[in-house]
Amino acid sequence: MFGLEPSLPAKKSLKIFKKNNIKNILELGAGLGRDTIYFAQNSIRVHALDYSKSAIETINEKSKKLGLEEFIETKIFDVRETFKFDDNIFDGCYSHMLYCMALTDDDIKNLNKEIHRIIKPNGINIYTVRNTLDGDYKKGTHRGEDLYEMNGFIINYFSEQKIKNYLEGFNNLSTENFEEGNFPRRLYFVVNQKK
User: Fold this and answer.
1) Which end of the chain has fewer surrounding CB within 10 Å, N or C?
2) Is 155's pLDDT higher than 90?
3) What CATH code is carried by the domain that includes residue 117?
4) Is residue 3 part of a domain?
5) Which among 163, 165, 170 has a CA at the least distance from the CA of 188?
6) What is the number of domains present in the chain?
7) Which strands form 147-150's sheet, in the order they lie side by side?
8) Domain limits at 126?
9) pLDDT of 81
10) Is residue 57 part of a domain?
């Protein structure tokens, strides 16, 4: 759906990870692994989670074919569950458009608490979300909160205030607007640091 090349957020994130000496990350909603592979090829260890069994199988196949098994671990996982990881074990966390899936406000608050728990002090959490400037915002069927369904997909849209609402335990280092795709989608690139 999004091609095979690493996403723009992954390229920006790699620079931030390198600058902050981050070598071990958790990737949420890894999809078919285009960003997972990119990070691994740049010597970052990635523990990639996705809800889809076929997505995880695809990442595993790519990892084996490219000889990246030592850098990539995968697991089928629903981010609404409690992570099965010890406290403070990852240097950082990365997710591209996972937060704007069909997750409620409570789901995201719980997810942020779990990310805070499993990343080390001063660890970096980078995520991207569709924002309220997006052309599809408030189109389709309203499903509560900022959730709208179009063509069978529910999307959660974020304002800058909403990003601030999820900062418990984190400092926001930056929130940048960017566009992706032909439509184009309008998104925020959010960089938070654990206090």
Assistant:
1) N
2) yes
3) 3.40.50.150
4) no
5) 163
6) 1
7) 141-142, 147-150, 153-156
8) 8-194
9) 96
10) yes
